Amino acid sequence: MSVAVLTIARATVRESARKKLVVALAVITLLGIGLTGFGFWRLTVLSHEVVRGVPRLSVTELKTVTSQLLIVAMFAFSFVLALSTVFMAAPSIAGELESGVASAVLTRPIRRIQFLAGKWVGLGVLAAAYVAIASTLEFVVVDLVTGYRPPHPLQFVAFLTGEALVTLTLTTLLSTRMSPVTGGVVALGGFMLAWMGGIAAAVGTALNNQGVATVGTITRLVMPSDGLWHGAVYSLEPAAAIAGVLSSGRAQAAANPFFASAGPPLAYLLWVAAWGVTVFSVASWSFRRREI
Amino acid sequence: MVEREDAAIFTSGLTKTYGAVTAVAGLSMSVPRGEVFGFLGPNGAGKTTAVKLLLGLARPTAGNAWVLGAPAGDTATRRRIGYLPELFRYQSWLSAYEVLQLHCDLGQIPGSRAKAEVERALVTVGLAERAHDRVGTFSKGMQQRLGLGVALLGSPEVVFLDEPTSALDPVGRRDVRDVIRHLRDGGATVFLNSHLLSEVEMVCDRVAVVHHGTVIASGPLATLLSDSGVRLKVEGLEPAGLEKLARFGALQEDGDWLWVEGITVDGVPDLVAEIVTLGGRVYAVEPRHQSLEDRFIQLLGGEGPS
Fold first, then answer.
1. Nearest residue on chain A to B88, judged by CA atoms?
2. Would you call B57 and A103 a contact, using CB atoms and an 8 Å cutoff?
3. Could you tell me the sign of the dihedral formed by the alpha carbons of B73, B79, B85, B89, in that order?
4. What is the value of pTM for the model shown?
5. Same domain, yes or no, for B207 and B235?
6. Nearest CA of chain B to the CA of A287: how many Å?
7. Rounded to a whole number, what is the distance in Å from the CA of A101 to chain B's nearest CA?
8. Helix or strand or coil: residue A223?
9. A27-80: per-residue pLDDT in tens?
10. Which residues on B lie below 8 Å from A7 (Cβ)?
11. CA–CA separation, B117 and A52 (whole Å)
């Protein structure tokens, strides 16, 4: 990685660290972890209550319910992550172009692709750090309160980071041409559409409606954030929970947006990597042609 | 005309259009190295667009430009260029010191030199005492001073200053003039885009006047401005006598004062002698130098400076 890319990346991290958005994000995240921790504690207490000589929930049932609730809690984090990624990236790139800050920077001996790559790397590092710290804290709190540990926490962090990078890459592309607000709103719209596309795919499969399922599949290919989210979901599910849901019927299982019966295949992950390279290349081409 | 390789800046038929609007129309000029070059023109004349084309921030529709012998926008050459944009904005979340340090890093100024460069720039632009304050707390004038400091980093061979005193008070303007003179003394070329004609007149060796995207006059300041005129305070001159003075130049009466345009300094004693011969009494004689503003308005056919 070139010195110019690292310089821009370092400045981007510093920029984000000094803005109130990061403080707000930290407060929201800690509040979320605190509230979910309280919820899991209440769940554990209630599950241990004995009704007619037996606890309300068996150990296996508690584990399954906890894993499902943890997935829902982590979805909330993933949404906050997408919001933060978009609204840190759009001002950092499009905002600097609009305000004139970039004029002085881009007359230095750096190529435009280096400027864009530096921004991407800096914001990507921040997103990865957020995922790692927030996930670890949540997992530790859940473990302390319930004794439950998700089966593949590292895979979860990798998938959620991938999801954030997909959103970041799309925002980077849009920021080369759009204002911060427009680019941010469109990128967030893309993230939401992808999530709805994932639900469409699930519902289409459940109802055996090939047309709806195809729309969902295409959405996951065009905007792969939801595809990676399903990988994250899969990495949080204990084998017993997967077996339990599958035994209740394949179609019903597929219709649940917080359930994944399998992780994304390698071919899909390769597709996501190719998607990232392609979208960043288009962003670079667009930025190179942009007049400042 | 300085050759392309030798010139600090050389353009040939440089053109930039935005849809139906032509911002720069076939700009051809050359700026010799080591001079302070004033680039003047009214609002919308294409001055800032021309600067952006020279820096590679915008792409020309036609024509070519070279800076320090390399095509405009050449990445490696940018190491030898400083730039203060017209719209000067710097990272509000950084301190002045950090902004300068960032530009040292981007300009590939070695770490061993960077600290001294930053400190020198801060002193030069008068921001040493605010070095560690956030740029977001700076006034516009201080931000412009910071921008000037950024442009000076790395001892650039060409410095583009786009309206460098637009936010400065008289003291700040004098400081900028000193900086420009210091740059010239150090052998740098300064491309000064300004609408403050009196300031341009004070520091520039050569100027180009641009109008509707094209250069309508250019050359050394001394040759661009004519000094052929004199103003005399005269009494007792009859109208008939006045007519006889027409051979010295174009006459214009202004109360007790008589303006004679087009007369050289050598002709002034003869003019005074003739007035006395014709019965006039001469109380004052003031050779008149044309100001850049007069010349500018003359070139633009009466349109005022921006």
1. A100
2. yes
3. positive
4. 0.85
5. no
6. 11
7. 5
8. coil
9. 999 999 999 999 999 988 888 777 777 777 787 788 888 888 999 999 989 999
10. 102, 105-106
11. 81
